[in-house]
Design a protein that fits this description.
By secondary structure, this protein is of the alpha/beta class. The chain has 20 helices and eight strands. The chain has helices spanning 18-36, 75-88, 104-113, 125-133, 140-143, 153-156, 184-189, 201-215, 226-229, 232-236, 254-269, 283-288, 301-308, 310-314, 345-355, 358-365, 375-378, 392-404, 419-434, 439-460, and strands spanning 61-68, 92-99, 120-123, 171-177, 179-183, 316-320, 331-338, 371-372. Helix 2 links the parallel strand 1 and strand 2.
């Protein structure tokens, strides 16, 4: 699964339409390529394009802080964090700006061209990739050598970049893991033990087959959603996404072919809504209507189920994510990057670290269903409380927090798997699942398309 979802943010690489994502990526890539060679900004006190900012020992100056679609719902929280920072560091002035999700990457590009990137900027997966690949973000592991231990490993390691060694190019902010939710009544109706949910992708497919056979077309097992399922399912099945040098995609393997074969059979059996193969249906709505056995994979969506479908919520059981033999789970993240040529690296680094510290992340998580990337924050008793063990949302919070403590980088989508790569792979998977080409051909063509895009990306760097 991919790095995504976080309740405060209403757009992501999963919930945007593919055509919009491709157009945005193409525009951003072209514009950033034009600016990358000469660096960004040229402001007084900036570093060379290939250099990194250095601490001066003086935490002062005026910095800008940009967030993604947090106003007005979280204005009080964010402003409170800023005000508290100002009391601790009175020589720093923080100017906060919040922008909508639509066109976010394009705005970053325009600001980069004009030398106006914020000092501290909220990054989603795509914007981190675009700015990081082109050398526009500070290496926070170098800027803040002791800070790595403050974050859970899976979140910290998420912000490394190919070919950049041990560098980490953003502070992890709020995160959320995968979980498994299912309608225990429909699950039992298929003859399955409600206390033995699937632990591997193969088991998930086995159980979906039994559900499809028992449902009589009254409901389905799960959403097809290949854009959301890959490359996570493959990782869980032990499929290598990249070669050992991380220079090319290498997922054309018997296991990947097996995945397409199983999906093809399940699709034909009616184990998934037919339309979910090519478009994003409202999962919470279908699950709430009792038309789907496996429900939201994110704790945050359970709020919608509870509010809109109390009867479905009452039938919901929560378990740890399907992981596979290697223990892979997906974690979805947002981060704070520091502009590499910031005039005030000390102030920018301290502020980003302040926003992402344990107490501030816990306070945020109590307002919305997200989790701290900060290890001390995740250890807060709030995340261990399972209540009476019956409330799905409470259980989801505790199960998700436990998973996050051990989630590792290999559970996450490689940064090479960009939106453009994902879309190219999905097009071939759709053909294979619908029977328009053989599973073997679908995987082979998908890898060829992905490597063509990767080669183009590497040429631009």
């Amino acid at each position: 699964m991919k790095r995504r979802h976080l309740a405060p943010v209403r757009t992501s690489r999963h919930d945007r339409s593919p055509s919009r994502a491709v157009l945005a990526a193409a525009l951003v890539g072209a514009l950033l390529s034009a600016t990358a060679a000469c660096g960004v900004g040229g402001a007084e006190g900036s570093t060379a394009a290939e250099g990194q900012p250095k601490r001066t020992g003086k935490i002062s100056g005026e910095i800008t802080f940009r967030t993604l679609q947090l106003k007005p719902m979280f204005t009080t929280y964010v402003q409170g964090v800023i005000d508290a920072f100002g009391k601790k560091y009175p020589d720093v002035k923080v100017t906060w700006e919040d922008v909508p999700g639509d066109g976010y990457n394009e705005k970053l590009v325009a600001d980069a061209q004009a030398g106006g990137l914020p000092d501290v900027v909220n990054l989603n997966t795509d914007s981190f990739q675009l700015l990081g690949d082109r050398g526009m973000l500070a290496d926070v592991a170098q800027l803040d050598p002791q800070v790595a231990k403050e974050y859970v490993p899976g979140a910290w390691e998420q912000y490394k970049l190919p070919g950049k060694g041990a560098g980490v190019y953003a502070y992890p902010w709020y995160v959320t893991p995968e979980i498994l939710t299912y309608n225990k009544e429909l699950f039992a109706a298929a003859g399955l033990d409600v206390n033995k949910p699937p632990a591997t992708v193969e088991q998930f497919f086995d159980q979906a087959e039994r559900i499809a056979a028992a449902s009589g077309s009254r409901y389905t097992a799960f959403m097809a959603d290949p854009k959301g399922r890959l490359p996570g399912d493959w990782q869980k099945m032990g499929v290598p996404i990249l070669d050992k040098k991380k220079s090319a995609f290498a997922f054309d393997t018997p296991k990947a072919v097996e995945w397409v074969q199983r999906m093809k059979k399940l699709y034909a059996m009616g184990a998934m809504p037919k339309e979910s193969l090519t478009k994003a249906d409202d999962l919470a709505q279908l699950y709430g209507a009792g038309k789907l056995v496996f429900g939201p994979g994110s704790p945050g969506v359970l709020k919608d189920v509870r509010r809109n479908s109390p009867s479905a919520y009452a039938k919901t059981q929560v378990a740890g994510a399907v992981t596979g033999t290697l223990g892979h789970i997906g974690i979805y993240t947002q981060s704070l990057g520091v502009r590499k040529d910031t005039r005030h690296p000390d102030a920018a680094a301290e502020f980003a670290k302040w926003v992402t510290n344990g107490p501030n992340q816990v306070a945020f998580a109590k307002q919305v269903t997200i989790y701290p990337s900060n290890a001390k924050g995740l250890a807060d008793p709030y995340f261990a409380d399972r209540g009476d063990g019956k409330d799905p949302e409470t259980m989801a919070r505790a199960i998700g927090a436990e998973e996050l403590k051990s989630a590792r980088l290999d559970a996450n989508t490689p940064v090479e798997w960009t939106t453009q790569v994902g879309d190219a792979v999905v097009r071939e998977m759709q053909k294979g699942i619908k029977g328009e080409e053989t599973p073997e051909t679908a995987v082979k063509n998908a890898q060829a398309a992905a490597n063509k895009i990767l080669a183009q990306q590497q040429k631009r760097q």
